[in-house]
Specification:
It is a single chain. This protein is an alpha+beta fold. The chain contains ten helices and 23 strands. It has one domain: 3-Layer(bba) Sandwich (FAD/NAD(P)-binding domain). Helices cover 22% and strands 21% of the residues. Strands 1, 2, 10, 11, 12, 13 and 23 form a seven-stranded mixed beta sheet that branches. α1 runs parallel beside α5 and α1 packs parallel to α10.
Length: 504
């Protein structure tokens, strides 16, 4: 085993939305920061997905297997690279709605509150939107937070056919609004991510060190079991030990609890920070269903995401409980999640013989229906030997099904609109649910709270049990947001980083 002879102020594990953002924030204060990332820098050709190779899953799946609910192995759709899962994402950065902080009353039950408020996050949302150069427009979405300031950047231009679609949706009584998108100045890498807006900016500090290709295996604690003494990582086939004053775990809702569970000791037999037996439990995975519309004219299949509709977020004319959000998935060749929905592909090819992938990409418009779920202690991340076991059964299904059928009815009405000429009527709208392997919108496995008996970390992300351990990724969320939550991860990372800097 090799021991790094440098002692860092902060060691950050993971370089995604949380870790990459924290690296930039902590390094900017002149602190000695070590960032450990399992992956390497991703080539531009891989992160700017734009051809039918997208549907070859080994292109963006790591060379590892997890076990699913049925005990069978599967390849997860997760990204090990500088920037983490933000390297292949839509760049959509939405704020939580005000009602969510107190806990939503879902059809399936009451979601827990966060112990925090919109006001607590407001300044950090502002900072996150500026840092990630979010382009958008306020005042159209009927559910947006009332206190939100204008975006610094105007919405991105959309494909011309989307303008006609937007007007057609308006005639059906719904209000499409431009999705807030992170967008860089780089022509080669236009979509913003945690490498561009986090890691790269941190590299301006001479006290910042990034070690890629460093797979963290476990954390080592002092003899009393009260603080983390070292971080063990596999680098080029050799075990290294890194030491720091504060350790920040930001490996995501699956790998963060796995690292803690793998670090069990005699004093922590259930894993580190797990006296509450909550590490790995309450896994929540945003329900996602892809829905296809057929366009009358070919398109590039390479356009970014554009519009969203939240008119059904809090229900519809028939029900008063939350249903969820609708978002355009972008061009099929830009949507990695779409490749995880084989029922959609198989159905299209069955209905339309000789309908190849290139034709599918150029003749389709994809939509994502997304709904929140409730925490369930039986939905969890655990270990099977040294490998990850994911046990998961979705809930709040009826509300999600209502959202899907409600949206399909809206699509049919738009297709029957004589003033809309960009989509064609179809006998069916192929759809498929994102499978277990699509874990990009997962949270909840190291929940935060004031009570150490029912949570893993406090409201500042600090472990209840280990004095120098902080968790900063989506695993700390006590509830599942109703739509993508990348901005909340980034804002929370900035908030926690400020507290850590003040503690030194």
């Amino acid at each position: 085993m090799i021991i790094d002879d440098r002692h860092y102020d902060f060691i950050i594990i993971g370089s995604g939305a949380a870790g990459g953002t924290m690296a930039r924030s902590l390094a900017s204060g002149g602190h000695a920061v070590l960032l450990l990332e399992r992956g390497q820098q991703m080539p531009l050709a891989d992160q700017n997905v734009a051809d039918v190779d997208l549907f070859r899953k080994d292109r963006y799946h790591p060379k590892e297997q997890w076990f699913g609910t049925d005990g069978d192995p599967f390849s997860p759709q997760t990204i090990y690279a500088l920037g983490g899962n933000t390297k292949i994402w839509g760049g959509v950065l939405e704020r939580l709605r005000e009602q969510e902080w107190a806990g939503l009353a879902l059809q399936a039950g009451q979601a827990p509150g966060w112990g925090l408020s919109q006001g607590d996050f407001e300044p950090w949302y502002d900072k996150a939107e500026s840092l990630y150069r979010v382009h958008g427009q306020r005042g159209i979405d009927p559910t947006e937070p009332a206190a939100a300031r204008p975006y610094d950047f105007a919405p991105r231009p959309v494909e011309p056919f989307f303008e006609e679609l937007r007007l057609a949706f308006g005639r059906q009584g719904v209000r499409p609004y431009p999705l807030p998108l992170s967008w860089s100045e780089s022509a080669a890498d236009p979509s913003g991510d945690a490498e561009l807006f986090g890691v790269d900016l941190a590299c301006a500090s001479t006290s910042f060190v990034v070690r890629s290709g460093a797979e963290v295996r476990r954390l080592h604690v002092n003899p009393s079991g009260t603080e983390v003494r070292g971080v063990e990582a596999l680098v080029d086939g050799q075990s290294w030990i890194f030491m720091g004053h504060q350790v920040v775990l930001a490996a995501g809702a699956i790998n963060s609890p796995a690292i803690l569970l793998r670090s069990a000791t005699d004093r922590h037999p259930r894993g580190l920070a797990n006296g509450s037996d909550q590490v790995g439990r309450n896994l929540m995975k945003l329900q996602l269903t892809s829905i296809l519309q057929l366009s009358t004219e070919p398109n590039s299949g390479r356009y970014p995401r554009s519009f969203a509709i939240n008119d059904y977020l809090w229900g519809d004319k028939n029900v008063s409980f939350p249903l969820g959000a609708i978002q355009n998935g972008g061009g099929v060749l830009q949507d990695a999640l779409f490749a995880e929905s084989p029922p959609v592909l198989s159905l299209v090819t069955k209905l339309l013989p000789n309908f190849g992938l290139n034709q599918l990409a150029s003749r389709s418009i994809s939509w994502w229906a997304m709904s929140p779920v409730l925490p369930d202690p039986h939905n969890r991340v655990s270990l099977r030997g040294d490998r990850i076991q994911v046990t998961y059964q979705p809930n709040n299904r009826e509300a999600h099904d209502r959202l899907v059928y409600r949206w399909i009815d809206t699509l049919k009405a738009v297709e029957a609109d004589p003033e809309c000429h960009v989509v064609k009527e179809a006998p069916t709208h192929p759809r498929g649910e994102a499978p277990l392997s699509a874990i990009g919108y997962s949270c909840g496995t190291c929940r935060m709270g004031d009570n150490p008996a029912t949570s893993v970390v406090d409201l500042q992300g600090r472990s209840h049990e280990l004095a120098n351990l902080t968790i900063a990724d989506a695993s700390v969320f006590p509830a599942c947001p109703a739509m993508g939550f990348g901005l909340t991860v980034i804002a929370n990372a900035l908030r926690i980083a400020e507290g850590l800097k003040a503690s030194l």
